[in-house]
Amino acid sequence: MQPLPPSWYQAIFLRHSRRSFMSRRPEEEKVARLEALCREFHPFPGARAEFVRQSPDVVFKGLLGAYGRITGAFFYVAFIGSENGLNVEEGIGYTGEGVILEATALGLGTCWVSGFFRPEAVKAHLSLAEGEQVFAVTPIGYAERDFTFKDKIYRGLAGSRKRKSLQGICDGRGPEPWQDKALEAARLAPSAANRQPWRFSLDGGSITVRTDGPKDSGRYPKRLDCGIAMLHLELGAAAAGVSGRWVPLRPPEVARFEAQK
Ligand SMILES: Cc1cc2nc3c(=O)[nH]c(=O)nc-3n(C[C@H](O)[C@H](O)[C@H](O)COP(=O)(O)O)c2cc1C
């Protein structure tokens, strides 16, 4: 696999979910870069991202009907996976977060949305292969400079600014300094309703990611959130000079990151 861009690690600290967009069109160069990334970044089988050159206004739903809907973005990206595939959900989280962090590094606003969108409206914009489904989408555009009233309502409801302490999500502390940096980056990952369902166990030179329990709800798979945290974890390790590989695991475990010396 290609090394991950260091700009994605920096983007972890800049990214916030954005739900209100300006009328400024993203430059063609940035759009082309995101399109190419969606085509080429396929680290997990059965998971992919597709850039859609259409306004996503018809795709989003609001908190109450149209109220609170994400509006004004020029484009969007759909996160697609095979139904019932093994390890597909974490693959979508990992792949999708790569696109989100690249967009953030380009100065664009994003928001993972797996609940408040209409899959049938997405299907009218793109072609799915047999057995594929749309798990989530993100708007792509220039976000309003400041958080709007709508942004603040959502952020307040989800408690978006808060993250659990490392002690609350991790068994033990790492004997190796890179593990702290990796876990700090994972802790900043976005998750549906900011529920932070990822847990980490340290074992020598590896970190195992698992979900906090089996209870799940259809449109919000915890393994997808875990896939997002996996990319953050790997970027944190890389920033500390350590590369590694992911070994897929069975539920409730998700995958183990093994540092390569
Ligand atoms: C998989 C996933 C699904 C999400 N679905 C929605 C959604 O349907 N609607 C929404 O407004 N925000 C959604 N969010 C955004 C979360 O509420 C947000 O990431 C979380 O509160 C943390 O805030 P932050 O992204 O600003 O750090 C989703 C996030 C993730 C990771």
Tell me what the structure shows:
By secondary structure, the protein is α+β, with helices and mostly antiparallel strands. The chain folds into two domains: 6-157, NADH Oxidase (3-Layer(aba) Sandwich); 166-260, putative nitroreductase (tm1586), domain 2 (NADH Oxidase). It contains eight helices and eight strands, in the order ααββααβααβαββαββ. The chain has helices spanning 6-12, 28-40, 88-105, 119-123, 149-158, 166-169, 177-187, 222-239; strands spanning 47-52, 75-82, 132-140, 170-171, 198-203, 206-211, 243-248, 253-260. It has a five-stranded mixed sheet with strand order 4-5-6-8-7. Strands 1-2-3 form a three-stranded antiparallel sheet. Helix 1 packs across helix 3 and helix 3 packs across helix 8. The longest helix has 18 residues, at 88-105. The chain is globular, with a radius of gyration of 17 Å. The chain starts with 5 loop residues before the first helix and ends with a strand. The model has no long low-confidence stretch (mean pLDDT 93). The protein binds flavin mononucleotide. Flavin mononucleotide binds at residues 16-17, 111-116, 136, 154, 158, 160, 190-194, 224-225, 228.
